[in-house]
Amino acid sequence: MDARSYDPPDRPMKPAHERFAALPANAANWCAVWRRNYLVWRKLALASMFGNLADPMIYLFGLGFGLGLMVGRVDGVSYIAFLAAGTVASSVMMSASFESMYSGFSRMHVQRTWEAIMHTPLTLGDIVLGEIVWSASKSVLSGVAILLVAGALGYAQFPSTLVVLPVIALAGLAFASLAMIVTALAPSYDFFMFYQTLALTPMLLLSGVFFPVSQLPAAARFATELLPLTHAVDLIRPAMLGRPIDDAALHVAVLVFYSIVPFLISAVLLRRRMMR
Amino acid sequence: MTEAAIEFHRVKKHYGGKVVVDDLSFDVRAGECFGLLGPNGAGKTTTLRMLLGIAAPDAGSIRLCGEPIPARARHARTRVGVVPQFDNLDPDFTVRENLLVFGRYFGLSTGATRALVPSLLEFARLEHKADARVSELSGGMKRRLTLARALVNDPDVLVMDEPTTGLDPQARHLIWERLRSLLSRGKTILLTTHFMEEAERLCDRLCVIEEGRKIAEGAPKELIAAEIGCDVIEAYGADPFALRDELAPLAVRTEISGETLFCYVNDPQAVLARLKQRDDLRYLHRPANLEDVFLRLTGRDMQE
Questions:
Q1: Which residues of chain A have a CB within 8 Å of the CB of B215?
Q2: Which whole-number Å values give the CA distances from B40 to B43, B79, B193, B219, in the listed order?
Q3: Which ipTM did the prediction report?
Q4: What is the pTM of this model?
């Protein structure tokens, strides 16, 4: 079969409906996608929660008590109290990212669930938004569970810790949106290893989760200011320790930026992938 | 019922430098079954994707249920049911849950969909499987569940991409029977297929496409009469070229595809008498069908 060549007509600008096909059609459609994921999760909730919590708990107690013996007090509190906020923030990051990547990829590529939904009145944008909010929801669950454990052990000061709840939700949206870009580009599951190694692990180590960012050289300190996890930690730690939050508006603004811009980028990438 | 449910007007689509759909025009009237016929890679699936507003055409215009596509695709899709070529049922849900969740995408409340489920399951002959997991279903059952799912919004138009590909004959016949019953209820069906028998049985009209171009259009019987208009004798088992030299004088026309010689004949008895003398051959005398039309138009087999 020979391919006949064909010159596409000039299209300096795509018509509006094409640009918007990747955006949510309205404020409610995404709920059906969220609900679908929730109904599946509900079937395996216990196993899923255990998997989500085991890892951060091991870090919290293993490093908190073990390493805590050697390092003594950090920032004026015990090491485990310092680490608790970092564990909340990093578990939100991991849980939102993994849901957007591995589970999102399964639904998009392997099970063709997105394709089925695109045959209904929902748009691709509705699907992407539903998926991101779902990933954020799962990360809220992880973050809150650790918060409760930390609170029960006296490492979270009430009522100031309540501020952490909306911060967790916002950080969940930011990490879910970022990971959705990776999903949009992924040819297979193997691709996610790059993001884990090149983005998630460095963020985990450089954003003030395990030690204060002030320990880093000045240049590195500047770089960490660009990472969303740094800002999540800077909001969550003072709230859990019952201290005033410095530069709260800046931290929130950065997380809002990381929620919205990657969402739009991923929507455009996914339109190219799914709607060509 | 002459209002067009689907209009394709001079639609073009290319990927990279390759033209996939080339100046394709056709109309599907409300209430009819229309077939897009062609070998794999002819552009059938791309045509359906453009119809649903999932791929944008490079040129031309499309209307579905009166709505311009892709501008108002999501509005048009409220009145359309889709049976895709590849199974995309939700493996995490039971049969019933698949229907309930899908209703939500059309804005139906769970209660409203729940009320529909018994009739949908009955239609799909899956009453006894309501609580089975999708992985427990046979290929035919999965396809029937996909069909039931496509009916959850009581659509006017059904779009089906190779609805019986990969099914065994029994499962295929059951799907055909179900589609007939939908047509009798006034639904419009657009289907793609590379099965001649499927197209001949179901379609009121069809359009044969090859490499994205329409090469014939009409009612199956009219196309067969116009393009072939006589009986066919197929013979195979020996060198088809030598056989052609022997039989060509007795036939209106001959065609070779693979190891088979096709003789288009007004007087079948003369050819059959010759063939009876040969015990190295197997042969079949039959009326002409759409496969012959395709072979005539392209010189190739439809099924690759």
A1: none
A2: 8, 28, 9, 22
A3: 0.91
A4: 0.92
